[in-house]
Amino acid sequence: MGLPLLITSGIGASSAFAAPENSTSQVAGQIQQNFKDGNYIVVLKDAPVASYEGGVSGIAATKPAPGKKINKGDKNVKAYEAHLRKQQRAVASSQGVKIQKDYTVAINGFAAKLTAAQATELSKQKNVLTVAEDKQFAPDYSSTDFLGLSGKNGGWATQYGGTANAGKGTVVGVIDSGYRPDNAFLKGNPVKPLSGKATVGQPYLDKDGTIAMLKADGTTFKGECQVGEDFDGSACNDKVLSARYFADAFVGSIPEDERAPEEVISPVDVGSHGTHTASTAAGNYGVDLESAGRDFGKGSGIAPAAKLSVYKICWEDTDPDTGGCYTSASVAAIEQSILDGVDVLNYSISGNNNSIVDPVAIAFKNAAAAGIFVSASAGNSGPTPTTVNHASPWLTTVAASTFSNELMGTVELSDGTKYRGVSVMSSEVQDKPLVLSADAVAAGQEAADAALCLPNSLDPAKVTGKIVICDRGVNARAEKSVVVADAGGVGMVLVNISTGSEDSDVHAVPTVHISNPEIKTRVAANPSLTGSLIDHDTTGLPQTPLPQIAGFSSRGQTLAEGSDLLKPDLAAPGVNVLAGVVPEAYNGDSTGFMSGTSMAAPHVAGYAALMFSKYPTWSPSAVKSAMMTTSYDVLNNDGSKNLDNFATGAGEADPNKMTNPGLVYENDVNDWDALINGELDAKNVNLASYAVGSLVGDVTVTREVTALTKGTYVASANVPGVDVKVSPSTLKFAKAGEKKSFTVTFKNVSAATNKFTHGSLSWNYLGTGIGNSAGKGKAQFSVNSPVSVRPLAVAAPNLVEFSGASGKGSFDVLGGVTTNADLSVLGLAKGDVTPTGAKKPGEGAVIGSNSSTATKVVKVAEGTKTATFSVNADDANDDWDMLIVTPGNQVLQIATESASESTVINNPAPGTYYVIGNLYATNDNGAANATIEYVGLTGDAGNMTASPDPLALANGKTSTVNLAWDGLTEGNWYGSVILGDTGSAVGVKVAVGTNGAAVSTSNVKVYNQSDIDKLPKSSLKKS
């Protein structure tokens, strides 16, 4: 969002425009962290070792050249690390902070325990990029057959040199919950000392006894088999070259009696997630697949010849709601992986959806700068919009798709009705009574709990010998079948009550998982019905189209960077994926099914290993581009193309076509740093996708492509309702490696406003001719990119400011459509002002008062259309921050470098608000005074007019709104001009002040109540 502009009476307008009320594009930059006492990661702005390109006197660049890795023993690396640690100590000591762990390779930062005040103060230092809580995140039949990799004509044979070479010379790092060393996917031979010259892809023992391997890119991987509990360090082999663990945050945060009894402080996996992801990405070829007593043939990892390096950061505790994957552990693992020399990182762990500068994202940026491809899971919060994780453009965010119709089961009722679902049962159930679980509630239990088949909720007298119909939700799916079995049930029908995936869990009783809740109505109407559970599809219905995006897969748009980045990037198999597991967690099986974007991401990590083995000099962004532009359509349930780019990204990645993309879009750390520093708009990052979060008038973006196949390419685009012009529209490349730039201009023609429209842009290859006759004929292949743009009706400033008891002023708006907008006015209303003060700066905020805090209690009335809250410093040299606790107990924290703070909430929830002024700094570290101010607008007060009414808007043209006001007395007056039904409103502030009062607030923040509802609950204490 643009900064508001102070406009004096009678003077022209601001060029800063805001998104409409139902837009989320501005939220990411506005909502600041509600700091509380706890563990944090502090990231400084200067580059770490992985991306440092010089600039410090006497220290040369440490960023590795293409095809090289960081040499930890290099004198410049050592000197620069010392420089960074000195810088970190200076930042920490400025607030009396003790550094717990420093980071110098993946990020320039440190982990520390901070008070709320320390976190706030550090976040405002000019050389600090971000201060982020050390959070716990959750770990978010062969798919290779579906992907066309297996078989004599499959991709392994035709594109990657056969299974013995598919991924050879590469190392995939898996940051997860560890691994099970004895799993068949991960077994290998002992590694022997080097005899003679190192060969690509052949591990050997170094002189110090450490496993090393010459990689395809000419560098050498070298890791460590770290000794730990139940792991003596001897289990690494010629498949798993290295295994490390990062337990400091877990051990420091979770008492031993709250850790899962099976958890071990070592690289060993106890829950299966890490084993599953590692074996999916690069598991051995030809492993026997068996689950729940059924034989599923043989399976392989995507890159069976690639090697693995395991980084355990996720830990099991006794709280099912915590994931145990700590931010500090993630950063440490990423840093170590860079030093070890991995080629690919898989990160099947959740993250945030509104920032590209959290510590993990910054660490991945510098991993990518070091040449590492990063695959990250999109998240499992779908189909809800704006839930996609991992917004950063330097990593590849992966959605989950379906890939198989083999795991079918059928519920057959005695009236002839059949319901198709998913099942892996090893034995069928024939002609048994049916009972709705809600009708089998045990004495003293709630029917709602019984409906969900929660523990102890079912009455054995009503369940024994029957098939029980249970609702999905609340407790684990597999636990429901245990509850049924414990009550004497012989089978279960698991029903999705709302949209959701059908999952192939191993159950305690034969089970079919269906998505048709109509079965409950049918059985309730005829309790005498019996049923059978069949282990295959008997419905005769057409096969479900493949692939489809899983219902659970998180959707865009991303809330980061004004939604000018398109996420997810692409899709891969993530539903009912069969891979390695921990037997103790899977009823003795060593292979098992899992679903999630966690399962999709390692497919893409495996693809990257295949690509780096074939093309070891390619950049991570080139590999990502090739995956995206050669992907194919994801389908809807009716077989039509899924047109929602926020579900599919570029589409389903195709490992057989990505080897020949024709053109690639490349970007590097210089682009990423420019983006972070505000020097490059997100929509202009050179990605193989296009996103414009605010389309008003003509919006032009620039791209550059590198030719891998010479010849002529002609552009075409289709974005419904939007005119797309590509210039030049024909690109002719005389040789591979040649680069050419082009622009793409978008303009809304007929698309609906304030919502995204999705389409695509393609470069169609017409052959090798580059003369005058080139550019004609049928395309041989296309380089395809997804396009998502959001047309707005108008772009307008958030706030305009004037002064004077009476006067005139104006502001400009930019039209996104051609229409007439009826103007309406709220206010002007005078703020309710409470004088206050604080004794000294530096103490954390509370609800109430302390030496640095004052609180005003505000009652926001029903029907209030806008609420403005301000903390106004009496002295412009002081620095006050503001926090607002809402009736829903959410908290907004507004902490900028300005003396005063202000925020506006559109359509606020009625009720009690606590407006807190917290004194951050004064010149003499002493007392300071301020006022806390509130005004709620409900209607036109008759003291301000807006003209012309209606306001004529024209697409791409500027229109001027003229204001006039009179009759104001001393103080701050607030109003709003609503621009018809465009969804936009412009805040108005008129200051009538004397005695040097600091009446101007230049850092107003504007929220919608829908944004407030997404904020975390307040942890502030009451004084």
UniProtKB/TrEMBL annotation:
Q: Which GO terms describe its molecular function?
A: serine-type endopeptidase activity
Q: Which residues cross the membrane?
A: none
Q: Where is the Inhibitor I9 domain?
A: 39-135
- Where does the Peptidase S8/S53 domain start and stop, copy by copy? 167-651
**Taxonomically, which superkingdom?**
Bacteria
Please give the SUPFAM superfamilies that the UniProt record associates with this protein. Answer: PA domain, Protease propeptides/inhibitors, Subtilisin-like
Query: Which residues does the UniProt record annotate as the domain PA?
Result: 443-518
Q: Residues in domain Subtilisin-like protease fibronectin type-III? A: 684-764
Catalytic-site annotation from UniProt = D176, H273, S598
Statement: the UniProt record of this protein carries the keyword rRNA processing? no
> Which residues belong to the signal peptide in this entry?
1-18
What does the UniProt keyword field contain? Hydrolase, Protease, Serine protease, Signal
Q: Which InterPro entries match?
A: PA_dom_sf, PA_domain, Peptidase_S8/S53_dom, Peptidase_S8/S53_dom_sf, Peptidase_S8_Ser-AS, Peptidase_S8_subtilisin-rel, S8pro/Inhibitor_I9, S8pro/Inhibitor_I9_sf
Q: Name one Pfam family in it.
A: Peptidase_S8
Annotated GO biological process = proteolysis
The UniProt family comment states: Belongs to the peptidase S8 family.
Its protein name is: Protease
